[in-house]
Give the backbone structure.
Amino acid sequence: MKAIVCVKQVPDTSGKVAVKEDGTMDRASMATITNPDDMNAIEAALKLKDETGCEVTVVSMGPPPAEGMLRELLAMGADKAVLVSGREFGGSDTYATSQILAAAIKKIGVDDETIIFCGRQAIDGDTAQVGPQIAEKLGLPQVTYVADIKAEEKSLTVQRMLEDGYMTIRVQLPCLLTCIKELNQPRYMSVSGIVDCFSKPYEIFDFNTLKDDPLIDLDTIGLKGSPTNVYKSFSPPVKGAGMMLEGADKDTCDKLVALLDEKHII
Amino acid sequence: MDFHLSKEHEMLRKMYREFAQNEVKPLAEEVDETERFPQETVEKLGKLGMMGIYFPKEYGGAGADVLAYAMAVEELSKVCGTTGVIVSAHTSLCCAPIFENGTEEQKQKYLPKLCSGEWIGAFGLTEPGAGTDAQGQQTTAVKNENGDWVLNGSKIFITNAGFAHVFVIIAITGMTTDKRGRKKKEISAFIVERTDPGFSVGKHEKKMGIRGSSTCELIMEDCVIPADRLLGKQGNGFKIAMKTLDGGRIGIASQALGLGEGAVEEAIAYTKERVQFGKRLSQFQNTQFQLADMHTRMQAAQFLVYSAAMKKQNHEPYSMDAAMAKLFAAEAASDVTRRAVQLFGGYGYTREYPVERMMRDAKITEIYEGTSEVQRMVISSHLGVK
């Protein structure tokens, strides 16, 4: 088996959010973390490596400082890292990003036993679109919201979490999974992993590396080419304190109903 | 001169911090309150390579450096002084002397299990009559007719003793004459295993601080160990012990550093919240000046500790540096944790907040692995002041 994990560096939402004039986020001035769902994706791949000894490659699209995040994932146990980075790619929406990442994954190499792991969605855009779009572009089966994985010969049995239960799905390899936090608890980096991570294979795929791949339509990538444009980004206003009503009697209920009615909630 | 940490060390610090916050801090209060040795933490530390940070991979170590080790003890001690000293004593006082003085067979036998955390290590030098005066040893090791060593005597205040599998033990192997013709005890070092016949762990000490750390007496009554357990050359035990303590001082200095820094972090957070006379405590100039002094002392301590660690890593003479680091960091930690309790006021004196525990934990760093007075002796002798 072979695992390819898509990861994204996202702003640490516990810090300040900075926005550029064009409405996109000013990522350079914000503290960053690895997208939380992507941590579950990397852990799933590393568990597969623990069981099968498979190779784990992490791939991310982002500016050069994303190397720091990729090195951390190498320190957790991934074997190789690829950073897809180029000015031409900057400001891409999900449609554009998935073309570029699909081409990058194709270049890394998808064989009959490859599993592509993605996080469900990133905490900045919250679209949950890139994973599924990559699968479509590569013509691979996909399972989203994966909460459990059992590896078998050339297939996986996975649990797909829905609002009111699970779907159990058997999927053939190669395939793409999007992972949720219920799937696992991401491991820590290890000391020896950190010592080794700077000597593990690390490659940069720039515009020239990928531009000739037919999966990429050059007119629809980057900020200008992306079909969707961010109109405005802003920090939501801070919510006021909630109101608590105490009591289990009819009066309290009437008061509650009146308040909800007043705010046009019911 | 570059005071910046490498990317590797920055990443290590991040990992240590996450681990300390998520796995160590939640247990610290209970470990102190119930005097419980946090065995489960040791297992986790072992898996992450934190029980053998600076030993080569061929012996099961993580292959990092002495600075990486000092930073680990520092970050662990920020949230739990007990966990800090478990790692420090294990690494500096047991793994290090075996790595530095052991035969290839001894290193292959002991280091992989110690570095993985499967085995815990300890060091036995102190005796009822030989603390600061390490020459006052009474424990003896005599060769029997089979060529085995027979140890008799007892050691006290041994860190990790209740849970350790491997002990580096210092004992008298005879009498010798020095260059001036004076009779002196010949001292040697040995590796003793917990399961060796005649070896037992005695009373557990009830302590003021680092209460989760297991501090016990070791008793050797006709304790027979094979000839190949001699560590280093016969008669080199005193040198091995002193060199081991030099390294150990970097560990304890790091523990003190972490305790002081942890108290500063707690005090900053608390004084930003606590309101008196309609103002946050952090708005009072006294608080600001106190915290400025506290942070400055700990920052100075950090430079001394990191500098000593780098000198050891680079195989430069570091004995005086380790003594200065331990002396300064320990006294700074005692002062800073005491001031933190004062800033917390009445709440600081209760066990609801961690600063009183940090203050109790900090005191020992001025005492063990050479008291502050011994550090001053070491430093002044390096200065040639006799």
User: Anything to note?
Assistant: The helical segments of chain A are 36-52, 67-76, 94-108, 130-138, 191-197, 207-210, 222-225, 250-262.
